[in-house]
Design brief:
By secondary structure, this protein is an alpha/beta fold. The chain has one domain: Rossmann fold, CATH 3.40.50. The chain has 8 helices and 11 strands. The strands form 2 sheets. The chain has a 7-stranded mixed beta sheet, with helices on both faces. It has a 4-stranded antiparallel beta sheet with strand order 1-2-3-4, with helices on one face. Strand 6, helix 3 and strand 7 form a beta-alpha-beta unit. It is globular.
Length: 251
């Protein structure tokens, strides 16, 4: 365990979930189930954009999302902006398989404030922005604000997509509704939430909310997803379609 400038980082060896990392006492990543989260944070958005070339990841310190992004051959640049460098360095030591793409020539790792990074970004800099953040408290709270989403809108190209983790549907339905509303208020033409299991997160059920400037989120590149040239353990074309279906209480 160690105390970084931002949070307490602890790593445990567990019987059921393998290596497990917590930040300030909250489970962030485990060997056993991280693939579901990382794949669902990445592939739905990248298979919805017609040709994603420039991708920005805000947060994502364990680098699993970066690894999934770089599986897409169309991606020419993947920039990751993580506030706490220690999270990445600890992940490199204890979760090396998640960090195997960190030295890919298309990858750029920056350790600074993601909110400021997006605010300072030139207009139409990115095709996809992935907000792989911690819970909406402390430094991460601003990643759920309308002002941040407006900056994302400005930083995205015409067919751009943003996707961000949006907590548990069971425990945080109001937050999901708030995120959807804020994204629309920020100018995004269409918003959709993806639902997927995540057994080591509160309630075991998680979500990610996508927004597009002008493309239709349900019309993803299904044939490309079905014929993907890389391996996944959870994501596939049918999972993608099913994940877009909302439970009755969130319709």
């Amino acid at each position: 365990e160690e105390q970084s400038s931002y949070q307490k980082i602890e790593v445990y060896e567990t019987e059921t979930f393998g290596t497990l990392m917590t930040l300030d006492g909250l489970v962030m990543v485990t060997d056993r189930d991280n693939f579901v989260y990382h794949e669902m944070m990445t592939h739905p958005a990248l298979f919805t954009h017609p040709a994603p070339k420039r991708v920005l990841i805000i947060g994502g310190g364990d680098c699993g999302t970066l690894r999934e992004v770089l599986k897409h051959k169309s991606v020419e640049l993947a920039e990751q902006v993580e506030l706490d460098e220690r999270v990445t360095r600890v992940s490199e030591k204890f979760f090396p398989e998640l960090c195997e793409s960190n030295h890919d020539p298309r990858a750029r790792l920056h350790f600074t404030d993601g909110i400021k990074w997006v605010a300072d970004a030139k207009p139409e800099s990115y095709d996809v922005i992935i907000i792989d953040s911690t819970d909406p408290v402390g430094p991460a709270a601003g990643l759920f604000s309308e002002s941040f989403y407006k900056n994302c809108f400005r930083a995205l190209r015409a067919q751009g997509i943003v996707v961000g983790q949006s907590e548990s549907p069971l425990f945080h339905a109001d937050l999901i509704r708030s995120v959807q509303k804020s994204l629309k208020s920020a100018g995004f033409g269409e918003v959709a939430t993806l639902f997927f299991p995540q057994c080591t997160y509160p309630s075991g059920w998680w979500s990610a909310t996508m927004a597009a400037k002008k493309i239709t989120l349900k019309d993803f590149r299904a044939s490309d997803a079905a014929a993907k040239t890389f391996s996944t353990r959870y994501y596939n074309r049918d999972i993608h379609g099913a994940a877009l279906v909302s439970p009755e209480f969130l319709r």
